[in-house]
Amino acid sequence: MEKTPLSVLQQVFGYDAFRGPQEAIINSLVQGNDALVLMPTGGGKSLCYQIPALVRDGTGVVISPLIALMQDQVDALRELGVRAGFLNSTLSFDAVRQTEAALLAGEIDLLYIAPERLLQDRTLALLSEARLALFAIDEAHCVSQWGHDFRSDYLRLNILQERFPAIPRIALTATADQRTRLDIQQRLGLTEAESFVSGFDRPNIQYRIHAKQTPRKQLLAFLKREAEGQAGIVYCLSRKKVEQTADWLVQQGFNALPYHAGLSAEMRQQHQKRFLREDGVIMVATIAFGMGIDKPDVRFVVHLDLPKSIEAYYQETGRAGRDGEPATAMLLYGFEDVVKLRQMMAQSQGSDEHQRYEQQRLNAMLGLCEITHCRRQALLRYFGDELPEPCGNCDTCLEPVDTWDGTEEVRKALSCVYRTGQRFGANHIIDVLRGSDSEKLRRFGHHQLSTYGIGLSLSTTEWRSVLRQLVANGLLEVDPEGYGGLRLTELCRPVLKGEKTLHLRRDARPVKTETPRRAAAPAAVNEADQPLWEALRALRKQLADEQGIAPFMVFHDRTLREMLANKPRTLDEMAEVSGVGAAKLEHYGEAFLAVLAETSEAPVPVG
Ligand code: ADP
Ligand code: ZN
């Protein structure tokens, strides 16, 4: 039978239909054209080169800087019955020889290569003797000096065009911005290539941003109510907090592991492996954890501290839900975060200009936290994407924000900051406003100020919320040198003069426990199906362990969920399930059918 893109999609990968622009990209490549693909994480970039490589004659060469992932990528392809291999510095000499021989014999469909390896004369000579289907340049933004992941090796990849003019090339990235896109086109000689630019929305991720009140309680409530037994990442700013949070989660009965740059390389690797291979591990980590995490079933990303920019926030939350199933991104942020980040920035080595730039990025992040309309619209707009309607799947859409006229209180707070000399932090200001009787206040004579005790209408928590919003709106700024002292900015003038009213967001009451209802189906299964679900997962884990691979390489959650819903009884019915291709049907079909038959209720005999 003739191999078409659709037949490969269905038989090898077990999926029924292409997503978004996949089909157009694949057809273009199959016809021998070049392509530039910008697609968000989880959009399905891999199929865009894997399928053409299988349809066209010869080997598809995939260039990727993520050496640590190559083994996993190759394992996952082999699970599908695809002949895959890789060449990088981790291989022994013998293994290299074997792979090279297989390539020349035409026995490899997909070959992953690190860029520095590809550029060696020996490799280039080898490739010119092999039959090649295409070159795929993954993480193509690495060619741009603007990005964070610049690799000088990538600059030399234009050699492919000169040495292999007849072989189609496809460059892929999830990085959005215009400048990087132009760089990729120019530096890789892809100005003639067709561009396929998808929107950057991740509709399956539910964004939630809440004021930090009792962070551990808030985290626990979320985990218990919505994420029991699921894999996720909890980001913290400091190593110490990572350790403490991981310990505490373990005490609460969760399978949690710490990850930060202070741990030995060995331990980090071991924890990363457990995160990939075991079900339901929670990784508590600093931002050192993330680059190149290819786990599709991360169900949540929680930030216990404020990320320092929207770019960082989007990248970190983007690690959730690559498989397209519902996932949650929850951020808890508070006043202390702003002070802490400001201080870290002031201590960093960068030039003044650089620091100002970082400050602007932090301000944009704060702005996102305090907005009262759809988070997703704001996020996408920041990246130059327009979402015409509110999304219905973020906290502000699900639970419209309550606002109040805070003009009067704001004026009290601003004048209190002014009268205490613009050098005290939030706690002190609140003490003055609420008329506390403290030694410190007396020492500075602040109990005699006209603003002493004028703020009893609000609780301490409410005042913190007001001050936080004033910083976010730019009416107050945090002194970076000192200890979080607050001072007025130009923007205060119209407010103090009574020319401007201010509407503030009312934070949820601390006691409040309901969470927004999910727009998408919850990731949890219903109670009646629970035993069968557990049995399917246990079988998956056992099969994965036997081969030393990750459970998701056997079947994704989505596939198990579909088995649960359809309860296939024959191999033919099993083949209909999304994610069950020919190779997996052969290897695992019977075993899963047996579990389904065993655990499902026996039919009631008639008569
Ligand atoms: P990216 O590299 O863009 O982040 P992947 O290529 O890893 O995304 O794909 C994300 C997930 O979507 C994978 O689990 C993949 O198997 C799945 N997927 C991709 N294309 C399809 C499709 N057409 N139908 C069903 N699932 C798909
Ligand atoms: Zn929304």
Itemize the secondary structure elements and their pairings:
Layout: H1 5-13, H2 22-30, E1 35-38, H3 45-55, E2 59-63, H4 67-79, E3 84-87, H5 93-104, E4 110-113, H6 115-118, H7 121-129, E5 132-137, H8 152-155, H9 159-163, E6 169-173, H10 178-187, E7 194-197, E8 205-211, H11 215-226, E9 232-235, H12 239-251, E10 256-259, H13 265-277, E11 282-285, E12 300-303, H14 310-317, E13 327-333, H15 335-347, H16 352-370, H17 375-382, H18 395-398, E14 403-405, H19 407-419, H20 426-433, H21 439-443, H22 460-472, E15 476-478, E16 486-488, H23 492-496, E17 503-505, H24 530-547, H25 551-554, H26 557-566, H27 571-575, H28 582-599
Helix pairs in contact: 2-3, 15-16, 19-20, 20-22, 24-28
Adenosine-5'-diphosphate (ADP) is lined by residues 15, 18-19, 22, 39, 41-47, 296, 322-324, 556.
Can you tell me about this structure?
This protein is α/β, with parallel strands linked by helices. It has 4 domains: 5-197, Rossmann fold; 205-398, P-loop containing nucleotide triphosphate hydrolases (Rossmann fold); 404-491, Orthogonal Bundle (Arc Repressor Mutant, subunit A); 527-600, HRDC domain (DNA polymerase, domain 1, Orthogonal Bundle), CATH 1.10.150. Helices cover 45% and strands 12% of the residues. The chain contains 28 helices and 17 strands. The strands form 4 sheets. It has a 7-stranded parallel β-sheet, with helices on both faces. Strands 8-13-12-9-11-10 form a 6-stranded parallel β-sheet. Helix 2 (22-30) runs parallel beside helix 3 and helix 24 packs across helix 28 (582-599). Mean pLDDT is 90; it is low at 510-522. Bound molecules: adenosine-5'-diphosphate and zinc ion.
